[in-house]
Amino acid sequence: MREKPKKRIVSASIESVFIGEEPKWDNPRTTLISALNWYANQNGPKESKKYTLDHLKKEKYSKTILEKVSSIDEIMFSNIGFVCRIIDRGAEIDKKDWIKEKINALLKSAEAPVKISEFAKNAPTTSIQDRIFDQSSLYIAEIDGYVDEFIKTKVTPEFNPYDWMINNLVKSVHAKQIQTHFSSMLDELKLAYDKKDEDLVEGYSSYKKIELKNFIKFLQTIIDDCTKIIDNSKLIKAPRKKKIVPVDKKVSKVQYKKEDIEYKLASISPTEIVGATQLWVFNTKYKRLGLYKSVDDSGFSVKGTTIEGFDSVLSIQKTLRKPLESLNDFKKAKKPELKRFLSDIKCKESPLNGRLNSDTILLKVIK
To answer: Where are the domains of the chain?
Structure first.
């Protein structure tokens, strides 16, 4: 019988050479980002669930809650256990409310009847913007460490911002905030270097001109590399397919008057507006004849009760003094005559606003 190959055993000491030991918080080089990366690489959902339960026991959560959390599938635990582990090992980070919020979410996902009543009503809701800000703040704090190193030594540190951001999975939304943060500092340095602000010149008086120049160059590299991250994300992001909306659905909310007995008029279908380059309308309430002209050959579009894509300068209307007579002439007019029809009416013109209503007769379109 063929023997199964023996499983290779790698000692903890050899493994630690390549991946490092579990992060310790008495080490000044340990950061929240590096620690989370370590746990994400070395552990999975099973460990995350265990760390979560260990933390809840330590924080003296009730037996009922522990049982409910214990019954939830480990795949639901994501990063919560790693944050719990980091706190339990001595990290001084304020994530108590965040953990409570995540526990409530876990209980809800499992359709558990139990709620953490003491804080459920007051649990803060974290918006997407808040999450982006919190994550960006962590990135900024770590980059600030390299900036502090320059301030102390006045020597550019061995730090490649672009590589660092790629390795730490910095997204474009975070890069924008990082960029904004260091841009204000860069502006100050430039004012000091160019001697355009006396207070800043005095504030950076301990720097030689070459040191100030290197400081500016260092910050500029951070900002430029943020721009690369932002620009690259635009290239990588697949273009979103534009959903084709049927014409009849586009015009389903258009308000217009189907017919008018007094002026013996009937409206064309509003579906004809889409793609047309000219639209003639008549407001029966104010006796105004109007002409919409599109900004380009693609013609009009419609959103709700509003026409889009019309030229706000060339689209005008005039009040008819003798509406029955003028409208009768309009019906008989050929295309060349329509070009000067409004200009021949001796009345003051006013702009059209694109909004259609229940007093509007849709007279004619030209494609």
So the answer is: 12-125, 130-236, 247-366
